[in-house]
C-alpha cells in the first residue's frame, strides 16, 4: 500500500493553520470532522514512521499506531516546536539517540527558526514531521529500542498484583537460588538463568489460569478469587522482577566458605547460621536504601535507557502480547513462534560445540598449524594465549561471554573491543620486553606466581592462617602476569577516571538529583514525580509511590544490623569500616549507575576497597573480606533494584508492589542460599582439587588467594615491585579532565573562534562523542586475565551484523525480532547446559575423537613455556623477598670507606641502583644515597657514639642504634643479589 504523505500533511496543515471566524463551538465540531477525514492517512503515515505495517488480515493497525496518530492530530505546531527544541537540547550528548534522528530534527528546527523562505515553514511535510517528533517525545520514547518493547499507553483493565504472582515468583526464586548456589562451587558452574525462569513462569501461570476454579469472596467491595482470570502481561512481569532481582548467589557465600572450611582459614564459628543470616541480610539490603537516591538519576530521566533490561520486556511481550499477522521485510512469523523456533534451535545446537565437536567452541585453528610453537600459541591461542584470531569460535555462548551484541549499543561494543585490542598489544609489549619480570611467567593468567615461575602457594607464608614474615622472606614475593598487570592498572585508573569524567559530562543530571533529594526531605508530602513531564512519569502518577523514607529506613536498619555483626561475631573489623564503605559507595554509586544506565557496562568497587582496607588495616584479612563484600553488594544490589524500578517505569507497574516484591524475593533467595551452604559445608572434600563431583570452588579459591594477597601480605608489599600502578589513580583523573576538554569544552571554544564552521565542528564533535573513553578502559579491564579476544571477536561480528547492518537497514525487523532472538538463544543455551551436565557430564560419557581432542593439542592447552627461563644461579628471578623498609634517622655523618658520598638521583632510573633516603630533622635536610648492588660496598654509619660498619654488599641498622624515632619508609627495593633490610616503622 502506497502512503500519501503529502496528502496527510496537507490535511494536517489545514486542520491546524487555517483561520476561521466562526465561534469556538462550531470550529470544534469541524475539527472533529477533519480528524475523522485524515485519520486513515495519518494512520498510514504514522505506521510507516514507526515501522509497523498494516495487518495482513484486515489492513488495520495495532493500538499503539492509533494512539500515536490521535496524539499527533491533537499536537499544535506551537507546542510541537517548544517540545522538540527542549528535547533536542536534552539529548545533545546522548549517544543512544540515533544520529540520523538528530540531524533530521536539527534541520527542522533550523527551518522554523532561521529559514528566510516562508514556503519551507508552511510546507505540510515539514509541519507534520515536527509534530511527529513532538508526539514521540511527549507520548512515547525517542529510542526505537524502547518503543519495540513498550506501549505508549497503559493497560488499566488487566490483573496486576495477584496471589499467583507471589506464589509463583517465590517458588521460582527458591528453585533458582537452590540450583545456582548448589552448583556455584562447581567447575564449570551450572546456572538457572533469570531468562529461563521467565520462560518457565509462563506455562505455570497459564496452568493456574485454566486449572483453578473461580471461587472467591468479596471484602470491602473488592472480590478475592482463586482464579483472577487470564494470566496477564503485568502478572508475568511482576513475577519476573522477583526472579531477576534475586537470581544470583549472595556475594558472601565466598566469605563464609573460605572462613569455615579447613582447606582455607578453618574458622569453625563461621558455620553458625545466625552469623551467615545477618551477614547475608546486611550485604543484600543496605543497597536498597541507596536505590531511593538513584531513581532520580537512573529511573525518571529519559536518557537513562537501561539497554540491559530491554530483552526482559521483549520476552514478556513475545509470550503474552496479542499476535498480529503482518509482514515485516517479508517475515510473517509472530514473536511467540519466532521465540519458540529460535529457542529450539539454540537448545539443540548447543550440544554441537559443547559436547559433539569441541573444536567449534574453541576454534584455535591457528595453533594447529604448529602446536609446539610458543610464540604462535602466545599470540593466537584461545586457552593460554591472547586470542588474536579472526575466527575464534562458532559458539554463541562463548562469542557473547563478554559482549552482548544486541543488548549493548553498537558504539559500546566497538569501543569496548578496541580497548581490549589495545590492552592486548600492551600485554605483548610487556611480556616480550620482560618488563616487571612478566617474561618468566604465563602471559595472561589471573593467578599469582612465585620467583620460580610457579603458581604462588599461599600456605607457605602462613602460620595458623596468619602472615608469617620469616616464611615469606624464605619463600618469595608474589608476581603478576602481564595480562593481570595491565588489567589491574586499568582497573585502578577507572575509579578516578569514571568519577571525574561522568561528574563533568552529566553534572546537571546529578545536581538535579541531589537537589530533588533535598527537596524531597524538605517537602516530604510532595510527589516524587513533581516536575517530571515525560510520558512514563505521567502514567506512574496514578499509582501510590514509594516514599523516600522507606528506602532510608531499610538502610538505617541494615546499618544497625551490620554494627551488630562486627560487634557480636569475631570478624576483626572496626565499626568505622562500615561507615567508610557506605561513604565510599555513596561517592561512586551515582556516576557508576548513570554510566550503567546509558551503556549497559558495569563498574565495581571490589579492587578499590581491597586496596584501601589493605593499606588501612594490614594483615587483617577478615576486615578486608567483609568490607569487600559490603562494597560490592551495596553497589550491585542498589543498581539491580534501580534497574527493576526502571522496568516498572516502562511497564506502568505499581511501585509499592515492586518494593515489597523485591524485599521478599531477596530475603527468600538469601535464606535458601544460606541453607544450601549449611549442607555444603558438611560435605567431604568440598573445594579440594580431587573432588569427584568437580566441586572444586574456583571462585572461592580465587577469593581466598586475593584475601591473602591483599589482606595478609598487603598491597604495600604487593606493589613495591609495580610502582606505576599507584600512579594510575592520578592518570585516570587527568584522563577524565582531558577527554571532557576535548569532547565538550574545546568544540565550544572552536565554535566561538570559527563561527562560520560551526556546523562542521558540531558534526565532528558528535562523531567523537561516540568514543566513550570509560568503555575503552573497561574493555581492557574485563577483556583480559583470564579472558582474551576469543570472547570478544565473535561478539563484535554479531554486533556489526545486528546493531549495525540490520538495525540500520531493516529497523522494523530489528524492532520486532532482535531482542526476542537474543533472549531465545540465551534461554535455549541455559536449559541445554543443564541437560548436558546431568546427562553426559555428571557421570562422564566422553567422545574421544579428533574434533574433541585437537583443541587440547599443543602448548595452547598444555601450557606455554615462559619467554625467559629462570636462571640456574641463584635459581629464581627478581630480587629476593627481603625488603628494605628504611627509616628516618638522626645522624652526624655518612661515609663510605672514609670517602664522602656523592648523590645522583638519575642513577636509580638508569642502572637500577639501591636508594636509601636519610633525613636530619635538626638541619631539615634530606639526602639519597645510591650504591651498586653488584659490588661489595663497605658502609660506615656514625650515630653519635656508635659506629656501624657493614660489608658483603648488605647492611643492617638495628633499632637500638637510632637516636630518633623511626617514621616513614623511604628505602626502595633491593636488586639482584643484594639483600637490604632495615627496622620496620611503627
From TrEMBL:
Q: Which UniProt keywords apply?
A: Membrane, Peptide transport, Protein transport, Transmembrane, Transmembrane helix, Transport
Localization of this protein: Membrane
GO cellular component, as recorded: membrane
Membrane topology label: Multi-pass membrane protein
Superkingdom classification of source:
Eukaryota
SUPFAM superfamilies assigned to the protein according to its UniProt record, in alphabetical order: Acid proteases
Q: Where exactly are the transmembrane stretches of this chain?
A: 273-294, 333-352, 410-432, 485-504, 549-569, 576-600, 657-681, 727-746, 790-806, 818-838
Task: Report the record's Gene Ontology biological process terms.
Answer: protein transport
Task: Indicate the principal place this protein occupies in or around the cell.
Answer: membrane
| Molecular functions (GO terms) | oligopeptide transmembrane transporter activity
NCBIfam families attached to this UniProt entry: ISP4_OPT (TIGR00727), OPT_sfam (TIGR00728)
Give the family, as the similarity comment puts it.
Belongs to the oligopeptide OPT transporter family.
Identification of the protein by name: OPT oligopeptide transporter protein-domain-containing protein
**Organism of origin:** Yarrowia lipolytica
Question: What does the record give as the organism's lineage?
Answer: Eukaryota, Fungi, Dikarya, Ascomycota, Saccharomycotina
Amino acid at each position: 500500500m502506497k502512503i500519501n504523505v503529502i496528502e496527510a500533511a496537507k490535511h494536517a496543515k489545514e486542520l491546524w493553520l487555517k483561520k476561521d471566524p466562526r465561534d469556538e463551538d462550531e470550529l470544534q465540531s469541524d475539527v472533529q470532522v477533519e480528524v475523522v477525514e485524515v485519520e486513515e492517512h495519518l494512520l498510514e503515515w504514522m505506521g510507516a514512521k514507526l515501522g509497523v505495517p498494516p495487518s495482513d488480515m484486515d489492513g488495520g493497525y495495532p493500538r499503539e499506531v492509533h494512539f500515536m496518530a490521535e496524539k499527533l492530530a491533537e499536537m499544535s505546531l506551537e507546542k510541537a516546536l517548544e517540545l522538540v527544541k527542549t528535547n533536542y537540547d536534552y539529548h545533545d550528548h546522548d549517544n543512544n539517540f540515533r544520529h540520523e534522528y538528530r540531524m533530521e530534527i536539527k534541520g527542522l528546527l533550523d527551518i522554523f527558526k532561521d529559514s528566510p523562505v516562508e514556503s519551507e515553514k508552511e510546507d505540510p511535510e515539514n509541519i507534520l514531521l515536527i509534530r511527529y517528533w513532538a508526539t514521540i517525545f511527549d507520548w512515547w520514547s525517542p529510542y526505537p529500542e524502547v518503543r519495540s518493547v513498550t506501549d505508549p499507553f497503559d493497560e488499566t483493565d488487566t490483573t496486576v498484583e495477584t496471589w499467583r504472582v507471589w506464589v509463583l515468583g517465590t517458588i521460582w526464586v527458591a528453585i533458582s537460588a537452590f540450583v545456582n548456589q548448589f552448583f556455584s562451587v562447581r567447575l564449570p558452574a551450572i546456572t538457572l538463568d533469570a531468562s529461563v525462569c521467565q520462560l518457565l513462569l509462563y506455562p505455570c501461570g497459564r496452568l493456574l489460569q485454566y486449572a483453578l476454579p473461580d471461587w472467591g469472596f468479596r471484602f470491602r467491595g473488592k472480590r478475592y478469587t482463586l482464579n483472577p482470570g487470564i494470566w496477564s502481561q503485568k502478572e508475568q512481569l511482576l513475577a519476573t522482577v522477583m526472579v531477576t532481582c534475586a537470581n544470583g548467589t549472595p556475594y558472601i557465600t565466598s566469605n563464609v566458605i573460605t572462613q569455615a572450611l579447613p582447606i582455607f582459614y578453618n574458622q569453625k564459628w563461621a558455620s553458625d547460621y545466625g552469623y551467615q543470616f545477618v551477614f547475608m541480610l546486611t550485604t543484600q539490603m543496605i543497597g536498597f536504601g541507596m536505590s531511593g537516591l538513584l531513581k532520580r538519576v537512573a529511573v525518571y530521566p529519559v536518557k537513562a535507557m537501561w539497554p540491559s533490561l530491554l530483552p526482559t520486556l521483549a520476552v514478556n511481550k513475545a509470550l503474552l502480547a496479542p499476535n498480529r499477522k503482518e509482514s515485516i521485510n517479508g517475515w510473517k512469523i509472530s514473536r511467540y513462534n519466532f521465540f519458540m523456533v529460535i529457542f529450539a534451535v539454540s537448545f539443540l545446537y548447543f550440544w554441537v560445540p559443547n559436547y559433539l565437536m569441541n573444536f567449534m567452541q574453541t576454534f584455535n585453528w591457528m595453533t594447529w598449524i604448529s602446536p609446539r610453537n610458543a610464540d604462535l600459541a602466545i599470540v593466537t591461542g584461545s586457552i593460554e594465549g591472547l586470542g588474536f584470531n579472526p575466527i575464534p569460535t562458532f559458539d554463541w555462548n562463548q562469542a557473547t561471554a563478554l559482549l552482548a551484541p544486541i543488548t549493548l549499543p553498537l558504539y559500546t561494543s566497538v569501543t569496548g573491543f578496541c580497548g581490549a585490542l589495545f590492552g592486548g598489544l600492551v600485554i605483548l609489549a610487556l611480556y616480550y620486553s620482560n618488563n616487571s619480570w612478566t617474561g618468566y611467567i604465563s602471559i595472561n593468567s589471573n593467578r599469582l606466581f612465585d620467583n620460580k615461575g610457579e603458581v604462588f602457594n599461599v600456605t607457605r607464608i602462613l602460620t595458623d592462617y596468619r602472615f608469617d614474615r620469616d616464611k615469606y622472606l624464605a619463600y618469595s614475593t608474589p608476581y603478576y602476569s602481564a595480562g593481570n598487570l595491565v588489567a589491574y592498572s586499568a582497573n585502578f585508573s577507572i575509579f578516578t577516571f569514571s568519577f571525574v569524567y561522568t561528574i563533568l559530562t552529566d553534572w546537571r543530571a546529578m545536581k538535579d538529583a541531589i537537589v530533588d533529594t533535598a527537596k524531597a526531605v524538605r517537602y516530604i508530602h510532595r510527589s516524587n514525580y513533581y516536575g517530571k513531564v515525560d510520558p512514563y512519569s505521567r502514567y506512574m502518577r496514578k499509582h501510590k509511590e514509594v516514599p523516600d523514607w522507606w528506602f532510608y529506613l531499610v538502610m538505617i536498619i541494615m546499618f544497625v544490623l551490620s554494627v551488630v555483626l562486627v560487634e557480636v561475631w569475631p570478624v576483626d573489623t572496626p565499626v568505622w569500616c562500615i561507615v567508610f564503605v557506605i561513604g565510599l559507595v555513596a561517592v561512586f554509586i551515582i556516576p557508576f549507575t548513570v554510566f550503567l544506565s546509558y551503556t549497559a557496562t558495569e563498574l565495581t568497587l571490589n579492587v578499590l576497597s581491597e586496596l584501601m582496607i589493605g593499606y588501612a588495616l594490614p594483615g587483617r584479612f577478615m576486615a578486608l573480606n567483609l568490607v569487600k563484600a559490603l562494597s560490592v553488594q551495596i553497589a550491585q544490589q542498589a543498581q539491580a533494584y534501580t534497574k527493576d524500578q526502571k522496568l516498572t517505569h516502562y511497564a506502568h507497574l505499581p511501585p509499592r508492589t515492586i518494593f515489597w516484591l523485591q524485599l521478599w524475593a531477596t530475603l527468600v533467595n538469601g535464606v535458601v542460599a544460606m541453607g544450601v551452604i549449611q549442607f555444603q559445608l558438611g560435605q567431604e572434600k568440598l573445594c579440594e582439587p580431587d573432588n569427584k563431583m568437580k566441586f572444586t570452588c574456583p571462585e572461592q579459591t580465587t577469593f581466598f588467594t586475593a584475601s591473602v594477597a591483599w589482606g595478609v601480605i598487603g598491597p604495600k608489599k604487593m606493589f613495591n615491585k609495580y610502582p606505576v600502578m599507584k600512579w594510575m589513580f592520578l592518570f585516570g583523573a587527568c584522563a577524565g579532565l582531558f577527554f571532557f576538554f576535548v569532547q565538550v569544552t574545546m568544540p565550544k571554544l572552536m565554535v566561538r573562534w570559527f563561527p562560520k564552521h560551526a556546523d562542521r565542528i558540531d558534526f565532528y564533535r558528535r562523531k567523537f562523542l561516540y568514543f566513550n573513553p570509560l568503555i575503552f578502559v573497561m574493555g581492557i579491564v574485563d577483556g583480559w586475565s583470564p579472558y582474551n579476544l576469543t570472547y570478544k571477536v565473535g561478539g563484535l561480528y554479531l554486533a556489526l551484523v545486528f546493531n549495525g547492518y540490520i538495525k540500520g537497514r531493516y529497523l522494523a525487523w530489528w524492532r520486532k525480532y532482535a531482542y526476542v532472538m537474543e533472549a531465545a538463544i540465551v534461554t535455549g543455551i541455559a536449559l541445554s547446559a543443564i541437560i548436558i551436565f546431568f546427562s553426559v557430564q555428571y557421570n562422564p560419557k566422553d567422545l574421544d575423537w579428533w574434533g574433541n581432542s585437537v583443541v587440547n593439542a599443543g602448548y595452547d592447552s598444555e601450557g606455554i613455556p615462559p619467554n625467559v627461563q629462570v636462571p640456574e644461579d641463584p635459581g629464581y628471578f627478581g630480587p629476593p623477598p627481603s625488603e628494605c623498609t628504611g627509616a628516618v634517622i638522626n645522624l652526624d655523618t655518612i661515609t663510605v670507606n672514609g670517602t664522602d658520598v656523592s648523590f645522583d638521583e638519575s642513577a636509580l632510573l638508569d642502572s637500577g641502583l639501591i636508594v636509601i633516603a636519610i633525613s636530619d630533622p635538626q638541619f631539615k635536610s634530606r639526602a639519597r644515597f645510591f650504591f651498586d648492588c653488584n659490588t661489595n660496598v663497605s658502609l660506615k654509619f656514625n650515630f653519635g657514639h656508635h659506629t656501624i660498619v657493614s660489608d658483603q654488599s648488605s647492611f643492617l641498622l638495628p633499632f637500638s642504634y637510632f637516636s630518633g624515632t623511626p617514621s616513614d619508609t623511604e628505602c626502595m627495593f633491593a636488586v639482584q643479589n643484594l639483600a637490604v633490610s632495615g627496622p620496620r616503622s611503627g
